[in-house]
Structure formats: structure tokens, C-alpha cells
Amino acid sequence: SRHNLFITEDGQFDPDFMVPAFIRRYPFVSASNGPDQPATFCFDTAAEVVSDKPDFPFFDESGEPTDTTKEAIDFVSAFEADSRITERFVARLIELDLFEKKEVKIADPNDRTKTIKVADYFGVSEDKLLALPDDVFLKAKTDGLLGPIYAHMLSLSRWERILTRYFKSVNQQQAAKAAN
Question: Could you give the CA distance from residue 3 to residue 33 in angstroms, rounded to a whole number?
């Protein structure tokens, strides 16, 4: 069955892993009002943490945002700024033609001579990166692209850890079914 490998049985995020900012910002989000207008800070009124009698009110008695609300606004604003940086970064990598389609394959547990394709994705090609002309590579370095590129490439090695976690979960589910 499909399930999030980073959610514990009691429905919480595994404390050994970072929760993505996209999720941590919930129930807050910003809505764009156009290129020359400030964004509007919004929240999901149906979220469990939103109520008529909250532990942390959004506004104080004078109608001003509380410190908690200000922290949420700052977090969402930083998230949106980081998202724009990421979009420009990805656009630059596309411009440099550094992406290639990749596959994640694992050994077939029933036949070690075969592999099973787990996923397709686009990742930075180290060969394409190293084949850049020196002046283009130097410009990428000067523009601060190399650190994030190598961080991305290093993160691709995490597939093994995720797959190990998946198979451990599957084995636990099968053992639980067999015990019943």
C-alpha cells in the first residue's frame, strides 16, 4: 500500500527527519496580488489549529498581529522568497541544459540478476556539468550555483536510504498480516 514513509504510526512526522517548509507553513500561505503589490497573508479556516478560542490567537486585543502571527508571516514570506530563488535556480539549470532524465532501480529481491525500476526523475547530470565550457562553469561558480548543484547531486544518493526504509515498512506490514 502507498503511505508516507516519514509519518509514524501515530500520525506524526518522524522526528529524525526534517519536515519540509512547504508543510511546516500550513495552515498559512501567501497569495500573490500582482508583481507590484504586496502578497496577502492567508490561512486555511478549516485547519484544526484554527478555532474561535485558539491557544495562540492571530491578533491581540487591539487588533494587531500577535508575535506568533508575525513569526508565521515572516516564515511564509521567507518561504515565498526561497521559492522564487529556487525557480530562478532551476531556470538557470535548464538554460545550461544540465538536467537529464534519470531512473532509480533496485535489485529484484526474487531474481538478483534483474532490476526493478522504482522511479523516473530529472536530475543534474555531472557529465553535462563537467562538460560546460570553462567560462560558463566559472560563471556558474561565481553566481553561486555550484554549491546547490552539488548538494542536489549528493541528495540523489539518499534514494538507497528511502528504499531501505520502504522495504523495512513492507516487511513489517507483511509480518503483521502473517501474525493475524
Answer: 36
